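Entry 12.
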Amino acid sequence: MVNAGNASKIGGIVLFVMCGLPGLGMLAVGIAGLFGNPGDPTGLIISSCIGVALLPFGLYGGYAMIVRRPFRFVIDGWGVRVESTKGPNWAFAWSEIAGVWMPTATKAHGGLGRAGMHSTLVRLEFVPIDPQRFASEHPSLQRYRGRQNNHGAYRIPLGPGAGAVSVFDATLRAFARGRYRGVVDEGVAWGFRYS
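Predicted 3D structure (tokens):
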């Protein structure tokens, strides 16, 4: 069982305070200085550029702080479910699926190669035994169908976290048993979106 949501709200507050407020301040100072007819605008241009670079991180932090809702992600002997206090709940039983695996990918942030930071993105992917019946009985899961695959599986993003891979792997081995196909390393995730 993983309790989530509160951690993303705390992370959102940190991003908003550490990036959003300074970014907005630097951008405002830079713009005000540029329109105030400065003698040497170099410092103001640099300030504006740094502000523009920091602002998206602060906006994302504000989004996470306001929009994300707490939920519990549960894997047990019955199956997998999400229990949310304010959002949609969903669940599926092991008896409804033919196979389940855990795709992972490495995402680079802030640079190329070893100089940049890397994170491991974790997903839960599964194929239902009867796709038509599963689709009609689980409408809230349809948004996860056919994401980043060619075989009609369902892929649920679990977020970043290399440390979570071993925990999820052990849990799926214990509860999904013969249906579990292991961890699948998909290499580097290119682009801004990885589903």
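Annotation: The chain has four helices and eight strands. Confidence is low (pLDDT under 50) at residues 1-5.
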